[in-house]
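Contributing new records

If you add data, match the layout below exactly. Sequence lines come first and carry their own label; structure lines follow with theirs. Keep one chain per record. Anything else will be rejected by the validation script.
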Amino acid sequence: MAAYLGLTSESRGEYHEKGSKFLAFAYPILDSQEALGHVDTLRKAHPRARHVCYAYTLGSNHLEWRVQDDGEPNGSAGLPILNQLKSANLSFVLLAVVRYFGGTKLGLPGLVNAYKSAAKDAIEHSTTAMMHEHCTLSFTITYALSPKVFGFVKKNGAIIVDSQIGETCTFTLDIIKDEKDTYLEFLSSLGIPV
């Protein structure tokens, strides 16, 4: 099954240690490009921050992940953030922590604790739900078959993300990944190659 636990909306958290402020931001994401877009937005929104460290996970089994320490000692920021995502069993989530330096060095254990605590606070303030991975399916049919396809799409809850209607009709659907075989079987029963 391609079901996963994800965020229903953005959330925030915060942690303070020896004058340093750690602001955490959790975002539901679909891919790495969206994750990096949020990181760029945070950098622009916090130009005086010393570091913007992050981790994200993708895939229903956390198959794809990335961490970034952004100048902090290796393993002191991105990995503790990632471990909080994994502990909460969250996927398709970016968790970024913006650090404002307070003038006192925290040492490696202090940094690990600070990034972990900020990340945990953002997760504790989030709302989660079981979700399904989606994929797209594109195909071309004759106009005469379009009523059958529209009926099937409506009955099964797919979203038409693009369509071109004419003598032939081209559709791109957003569907739940686990249901792709059902759509392929339906289209095959109509004689439509996909």
